[in-house]
Write a structure and sequence with these properties.
The complex is a heterotrimer of chains A (416), B (95) and C (982). Chain A folds into two domains: 5-81 and 83-108 and 182-251 and 343-415, FAD/NAD(P)-binding domain (3-Layer(bba) Sandwich); 117-177 and 254-341, D-Amino Acid Oxidase, subunit A, domain 2 (D-Amino Acid Oxidase, Chain A, domain 2, 2-Layer Sandwich), CATH 3.30.9. Helices cover 29% and strands 26% of the residues of chain A. Chain A has ten helices and 18 strands. In chain A, a hairpin with a 2-residue loop joins strand 10 and strand 11. In chain A, helix 2 packs parallel to helix 6. By secondary structure, chain C is α+β, with helices and mostly antiparallel strands. In chain C, helix 7 runs parallel beside helix 8 (331-342) and helix 10 crosses helix 11. The longest helix of chain C is centred in the middle third of the chain and has 18 residues, at 449-466. The radius of gyration of chain C is 38 Å and the shape is elongated. The chains are: A alpha/beta (416), B alpha+beta (95), C alpha+beta (982). The interface between A and C is large, with 121 and 123 residues.
Chain lengths: 416, 95, 982
């Protein structure tokens, strides 16, 4: 069923009784060309692009819970391509371009809202680093704009300019950055993949890999074994657990990131704003809630919940830059498990086991990468060579000493 | 969270700084034949279990002890807290 | 209009009146009222508009689960949006306004959306607004945003302040209803330290709203006695107006106490306090929340929960209606009828969905067993209800009871999943509770009074006993167990009109059904698709009904369908309270150097360096801008002598027999042969081979070294060194202590530095170049006996010293240095001049040691000693870190000396297109050099060490500029070091 305004009108006039399921609920077949483990954003996008761009449709996406129940279902919805390093920026800019055409592409309104993202800076060295980054972005064909304090005072008068512990000296805008309705991304990709014949199988946890003589020939699941020519793992926060079933140890630690939303408010924030002297980023959802987050809790965990010190630290960051939010209330907090890699950058690669592929290590930046991650993973699965913008996302890069460390904090996942 | 410091008793985890997998105490032999591989594994491939995890915490806002805390990463339950120095000495066969 | 609905009785003080305004209209209430009860007393039925369709709404509940009656409280900077009228304690002068409407509350222009509702079913926006592409951001989204949202922010800084605190207890009792009071009494008698917290301003829970009898006296009276008894116990701490909002690890609970919100005159006390409660055990006695039944047009003002109707009548002396009807599926609902009848309120009809004999007779009330309400009339206030049997009954208030849901929220905060309880048709605490937590009373599914009292008592005894206290010997309070049979009846299928499930977000039964049809098989998907349970009440009155409807559509039971768990906070918490006092200038502490006052008095402008404030430059009269000051400071230092406060550098005292060996393993270069009285420069790597920090270490004695680190890394380097000492090499005899705060340190630099210092140094110390050459150090005394440390080191490239004295002498030393330097025209210099001189000299600093560069990149590969190991050495040898085309730190100067360089510019080889593939590196630091009279820079460029003299493009598209630059040595000033050794 194609969605259109006319369709809404017709359904509205007939009691909304004719809507069809967005996707099927298929029974797993015994064998597929490709089995994707994980029906989160990246897994569903991979299936979608495999079908749409590479014409491969004999594909199953297996999901432990319900589709979109991972980090695509719990994040702060920000999209941006404001990276600095060669290994990252072209990839994220490709993702941004895919976001820009996504809704028309999959005929689903994911509310891609290019409301801008602003990174504030508070010191000269920080400014220098942002200039370097802005130039990287521009050299890679993305957009970037430096704003001085006077401009920010005009545009965002509610920021604390005059009583701040760390005065705002300026900021780096990416006007094409913004937010997306995160769940709708999963639904749009799932619907698009399903329409092209991909089987999305929920409540189908993978319990093991069928590996013989260094070759992976399928997976075992709670709904029985499924053979596959290629198995593509894409499970974000569960990466460590799932890959250990294949006997692999990853350059990844699992950490919890808390995110927060306030009660609904009439429009306050024009775009995404990030604080440079503490860890706080915020945007306002279409429903009116301020959606914000900060640092990860900082200790290894698989529990989807965090603790109070970080909640308070994040609120302090918020009050430090926008003290007018003091009387709005935090409505809900939640925690997502992040696959924090050793240099803060991800992996889209074959493993040393033939037929087994891995996509992960997205830290807490996986959401914005969803389209390009799916596209590049699909490329790798279809062609067995990395997509040109994802050539550095290799598992062996630490052995080679090829680090993609945007923050420069080294092999310390909780600092990325 | 609360960490029961072996010397100081229960302290809020906010007083501590977290490092990670306690195997970071087991620095490989730099002269060994496989030093390059061993150091790669040491620096980059840490245990990341869903369950009991031995990990390093530093009492920065306290007595500067490094501790080895055994904590469950699914429940956050802490079952054991040791002074890292004691663990290191024991590992080296006493001092 | 006066208080038309005020009736006799209630726990309010009718001897005093309070005046308040609602939408500008003056009204009166009494102490003990909530804003909601006072509005009802004044006959105000319409109080708000719903989120999506802007439907007229009235007060629906009597507590923090209120979905409808949200108001904006107060005005100006004190404006507080989205405040539940049902929890606002009335005070004199309170001013409230309804929210989320355009035009007046009565005539909301946005109500047109209600007419369009057929086209706005669940998920409609995902299917449209896509054409034309550009219209989403420009038209559709702004439209949605303006009509969505609830209250407004003042956009002014929150004028109140908030505090934080810690509390400790053996047993935290959460909720002071019957079970909680019984538990607190038992635990209090055992001697355990008890905290009893309740969100209400009046403890008692349902005892305040019901006509119960406990221990043969009225429930409210028993509550008062219990509180008197508890207040007399030193070991019991009662916190009213305090919500336990989150259960965190290891018995830590988050609590919010509202201190002044209820006061007419707030005074200067904190508005709210965020308590972190450390408990050994916690007992959740948070009661239960009544759930509605979904039927056609069940959202009209005047439709209320039945228990809330009782509360308003019994506790507040207000009747929400003149002709009250009741719709119930359970026995408990009938008590609304009997309580109201006892107060003389007319009951027009009792509709009970159960097809059985009526459990009671209520005088004057028509009873309809086995029937339900299918529709209602009265857009801005209920006028009548229509029953399944066809009767239409006039009524202005319909009390609805669908049974009670235990408040299991806190049991889920650590991912515990509730269990389904057939007997009460509700979820009860299940799965793994937070360790140390138990549940009693209605929160545990024990919905009757007598049982709840004894369960609370028993649970407290068990927990205190477990903690080693002697259980209380007093018997549990006694009360009868009221009838509470409840049918599994969730919504009225026969209703043709829209039946609201989530009142605030306007989610109807039909929306839920549609979501199921569209493939949203999991309850989480239904919530996300319809926004059910996402409103300010977090689904407290809607989640279970929705689950029941899903179960029905999918032909499953409710437990098969699933449950949703709850996350913190239990009720929303003000951002200001979470931040406490860490805001504005107090966001983070300041660290000030000992001569801060001197610097301030001498024209310094300060800059934040981490938490430190450092003097950036010292302006003198007549200087037009910072550049004038900085240029002068550099010139005068290079011409004569300058003094800079370098106290903020990290200082680590290292002692022990193996101190040298320890340094040898920490630093890349060799340390075993450094003589006493000498300083050496050292470079540290991270274990991954990346350059980490640099500085100098002085050997003051046989087994005594003093290390300096950069300001930024002082804490981190010390942490790593403690790690190395305790975890890697416990066999080394070495001890560390951070002495950053113990010593004030000043750089004295320039040709006259020695002459100046010679005036201060006590005899017989000799600081001549022969006796105290470059890289010498000594402990000596200055100014007639003040202990000091002197280091002959230079960051500026000048002939320079750093002198350290105990912190308390820092300010005096600065004064003495300046006084003694008067004859040399000594000048204080700040971090800017420091930066200019280090760039002139070619020293790497934070912009170069940025965590991404190696010793090789920095031109310091030679500092990695080949004959020993050190942290980071093995991994620094990895192939991709040692490629031929690796970036190298070099100097840059503009070909046209009049042009300015910019940090952050990227280098492009001449003739190449400026794009990322051709990126050669970047400019890391720049300065205008007053010494050379033009701009100079340091930066990294591929194979830079082999490209001296090459001209490349420094492109800076972010600033719209480009400069041709020549690659030079990074050492602009005194490249062979003759000056610093002189």
């Amino acid at each position: 069923m194609r969605y259109s305004a006319l369709n809404i009108l017709r359904q509205g006039l007939t009691g909304n009784k004719g809507w069809k399921p967005l996707w099927r609920d298929p029974t797993p077949k015994p064998e597929y060309d490709i089995v994707i483990v994980g029906a989160g954003g990246h897994g569903l996008a991979t299936a979608y692009y495999l079908a749409k761009e590479y014409g491969l449709t004999n594909i199953a996406v297996l999901e432990k819970g319900w589709l979109g129940s991972g980090n695509i279902g719990r994040n702060t919805t920000i999209i941006r391509s404001n990276y600095m390093l060669l290994g990252n920026e072209p990839f994220y800019e490709m993702s941004m371009k895919l976001w820009e055409g996504l809704e028309q592409d999959f005929n689903y309104n994911a509310m891609v809202s290019q409301r801008s993202i602003l990174n504030l800076f508070h010191s000269d060295p920080q400014r220098d680093a942002f200039v370097r980054r802005a130039n990287s972005m521009l050299l890679a064909g993305a957009d970037a704009e430096l704003a001085d304090e006077a401009q920010l005072r005009r545009e965002l008068p509610f920021l604390d300019f005059d009583n701040a512990r760390f005065p705002i000296k300026g900021g780096l805008y990416q006007r094409r950055g913004g937010t997306v309705r995160h769940d709708a991304v999963a639904w749009g990709y799932a619907r698009g993949a399903d329409q092209r014949g991909v089987d999305i199988i929920q409540n189908c946890e993978v319990t093991g890999f069928q590996i013989k003589n260094g070759v992976c020939a399928g997976v075992d699941t709670v709904r029985g074994p499924i053979r596959a020519k290629k198995v593509a793992v894409c499970v974000a926060g569960s990466s460590g657990r799932v890959m250990s079933l294949a006997g692999m140890r990853l350059p990844i630690e699992s950490h919890v990131l808390q995110a927060f939303v306030t009660e609904g408010l009439k429009p306050v924030l024009p775009g995404v704003i990030t604080f440079g002297a503490g860890h706080f980023y915020v945007s306002q959802s279409d429903k009116g809630g301020l959606v914000f987050g900060g640092d990860i809790d900082g200790y290894n965990t698989y529990a989807q919940r965090g603790n109070l010190p970080v909640v308070e630290d994040v609120a302090e960051g918020g009050m430090a830059i926008m003290p007018m939010i003091g009387r709005t209330r935090l409505l809900r907090s939640w925690g997502g498990v992040m696959d924090m890699s050793m240099d803060g950058s991800p992996f889209i690669d074959k493993t040393h086991i033939d037929g087994l592929y891995f996509n992960g290590g997205w830290c807490y930046g996986g959401f914005k990468a969803t389209p390009a991650s799916g596209f590049c993973y699909a490329h790798l699965l279809a062609k067995d060579t990395p997509h040109p913008v994802a050539t550095e996302y290799r598992l062996d890069r630490f052995r080679r000493g090829h680090l993609i460390d945007e923050k420069g904090v080294g092999a310390q996942p909780n600092l990325h | 969270m609360i960490i029961n410091h072996p010397l100081l008793g229960p302290r809020d985890a906010a007083e501590f700084v977290y490092l990670g997998d306690a195997s970071l105490m087991e620095r490989p032999d730099p002269q060994g034949p496989e030093a390059a591989d061993n150091f790669h594994d040491y620096a980059y491939l840490r245990k990341n279990p869903a369950g009991e995890h031995r990990e390093l915490w530093y009492h920065e806002q306290g007595d500067r002890s490094w501790l080895v805390v055994t904590r469950n990463t699914l429940t956050h339950e802490i079952s054991k807290v040791e002074l890292a120095r004691d663990v290191a000495v024991t590992r080296r066969g006493g001092q | 209009m006066s208080q038309v609905n005020r009736i006799k009785g209630g726990l309010i003080d009718t001897n005093r009146s309070l005046t308040f305004t609602f939408n500008g209209r003056k009204m009166q209430g009494h102490p003990g009222d909530t804003l909601a009860s006072a509005l009802l007393a004044n006959g105000q039925r319409l109080v708000g508009r719903s989120f999506k369709y802007h439907r007229p709404r009235g007060i629906f509940t009597d507590g923090s689960h209120e979905p409808n009656a949200l108001v904006e409280l107060e005005s100006g900077a004190h404006l507080e949006p989205n405040t539940r009228a049902t929890t606002v304690e009335l005070y004199d002068g309170l001013s409230a306004r309804s929210q989320n409407h355009r035009g007046s509350l009565e005539h909301d222009l946005m109500a047109v959306t209600d007419l369009l509702s057929p086209f706005m079913a669940a998920g409609f926006y995902y299917k449209t607004f896509m054409w034309p592409k550009a219209f989403w951001e420009k038209l559709y989204e702004p439209m949605i945003r303006i009509s969505a949202g609830l209250g407004s922010l003042s956009m002014k800084e929150d004028p109140d302040h908030y505090d934080k605190g810690f509390l400790h207890c053996d047993l935290l009792v959460i909720g002071a209803g019957p079970a909680g009071l019984a538990a607190a009494l038992a635990a209090g008698h055992s001697g355990a330290r008890v905290i009893l917290a309740d969100e209400d301003f009046r403890p008692g829970g349902r005892l305040s709203g019901e006509t119960f009898v406990v221990d043969d006296i009225a429930g409210a009276e028993w509550t008062a006695q219990a509180l008197t008894e508890l207040a007399a116990m030193d070991n019991v701490h009662i916190l009213t107006r305090t919500t336990i909002y989150g259960a965190y690890d290891h018995g830590v609970y988050g609590a919010l106490e509202r201190c002044t919100d209820h006061l007419a005159v707030k005074g200067d006390k904190p508005r709210q306090i965020l308590w972190r409660i450390y408990s050994k055990r916690a007992l959740l006695t948070a009661g239960a929340t009544e759930r509605p039944i979904a039927f056609g047009n069940n959202d009209r003002p005047g439709v209320m929960l039945a228990g809330a109707v009782r509360t308003y009548v019994n506790r507040f002396g207000v009747t929400p209606g003149r002709e009250v009807a009741l719709f119930t599926n359970n026995d408990d609902g009938w008590r609304t009828a009997s309580d109201l009848a006892a107060k003389g309120v007319s009951i027009s009809a009792i509709v009970d969905a159960r097809d059985q004999a009526a459990p009671a007779t209520i005088p004057g009330a028509q009873v309809f067993m086995g029937q339900s309400v299918v529709d209602t009339k009265g857009r801005k206030g209920l006028k009548s209800i229509t029953l399944s049997g066809g009767h239409t009954i006039p009524t202005d208030c319909l009390a609805v009871s669908g049974g009670w849901n235990p408040n299991v929220h806190l049991t889920c905060h650590q991912r515990g999943r509730p269990d389904w309880h057939e007997g009460i048709n509700a979820f009860v605490p299940g799965g793994a509770l937070p360790p140390g937590m138990a549940v009693a009373g209605a929160a545990n599914g024990t919905l009757t009074l007598g049982a709840a009292l004894s369960e609370g008592h028993r649970a407290a005894n068990a927990m205190t006993k477990d903690l080693g206290f002697n259980a209380s010997r007093k018997p549990a309070p006694k009360a009868e167990d009221e009838a509470h049979e409840c049918a599994a009846f969730w919504h009225v299928g026969a209703s043709r009109a829209r039946a609201w499930v989530d009142l605030q977000n306007d989610v109807t039964a039909k929306d839920i059904k549609q979501a199921c049809v569209e493939g949203m098989a999991s309850v989480e998907l239904v919530k996300r698709y319809t926004t059910l349970g996402m409103a300010t009440d977090q689904g407290k009155t809607s989640n279970i009904t929705a689950l029941a409807i899903m179960a029905e559509v999918n032909g499953k039971t409710i437990p098969e369908t699933g449950t949703t768990i709850f996350r913190p906070p239990y009720t929303p918490v003000a951002m200001g309270a979470l931040a406490g006092r860490a805001r504005g200038k107090d966001f983070r502490p300041y660290r000030l150097t000992p001569s801060h006052q001197w610097a301030k008095a001498n024209g310094a402008t300060f800059v934040e360096t981490g938490n430190w404030l450092r003097a950036q430059w010292f302006a003198r009269p007549g200087e037009k801008g910072w550049r004038d000051s900085v240029d002068r400071e550099v010139k005068m230092t290079r011409a004569s002598v300058g003094i800079c406060d370098v106290t903020t550098l990290g200082k680590i005292d290292i002692q022990g027999r193996d101190a040298a060996e320890f340094l040898n393993r920490i630093y890349t270069n060799a340390w075993l042969k450094l003589p006493v009285g000498k300083v050496r420069y050292g470079l540290m790597l991270r274990e991954d081979g990346i350059a980490y920090d640099d500085g100098t270490t002085a050997r003051l004695g046989e087994n005594h070294y003093v290390m300096t680190t950069t300001t930024a890394n002082a804490v981190l380097v010390f942490r790593r060194m403690e790690f190395a000492r305790q975890c890697l090499w416990p066999d080394l005899d070495v001890h560390l202590i951070s002495t950053t705060d113990g010593w004030a340190q000043y750089a004295v630099a320039g040709p006259n530095a020695r002459a100046l210092l010679a005036k201060l140094v006590d005899a017989p110390f000799d600081i001549s170049n022969e006796a105290f050459p470059f890289m010498a150090c000594a402990e000596l005394s200055v100014c007639g006996g003040t202990k000091a440390r002197l280091f002959r080191i230079s960051f500026s490239g000048e002939m320079a010293y750093e002198i350290a004295v105990p912190t308390r002498f820092g300010n005096s030393l600065m004064e003495v240095l300046m006084e003694a330097g008067r004859e040399f025209d000594a000048v204080p210099y700040g971090t800017e001049a420091l930066g200019v001189m280090r760039i002139e000299k070619g020293h790497a600093a934070g912009n170069e040691l940025n965590g991404q560069t190696t010793a090789l990149n920095l031109g310091m590969a030679g500092f990695i000693n080949k004959n020993k190991d050190c942290i980071g050495k093995v991994l620094s040898e990895r192939p991709d870190m040692n490629r031929d085309d690796a970036i190298r730190l070099v100097g840059f100067k503009p070909v046209d000396h009049s042009q300015k360089l910019a940090a952050g510019a990227h280098f492009i080889t001449k003739g190449d297109t400026a794009n990322m593939a051709n990126d050669q590196g970047w400019m890391s630091s720049v300065a205008f050099s007053p010494t050379f009279g033009h701009s100079i820079g340091l930066g990294f460029i591929k194979r830079g060490h082999q490209r001296t003299g090459e001209v490349v493009r420094a492109v800076n598209p972010a600033r719209g500029s480009e400069v041709e630059v020549e690659i030079t040595s990074p050492h602009f000033f005194d490249p062979d070091g003759g000056i610093q050794r002189g």
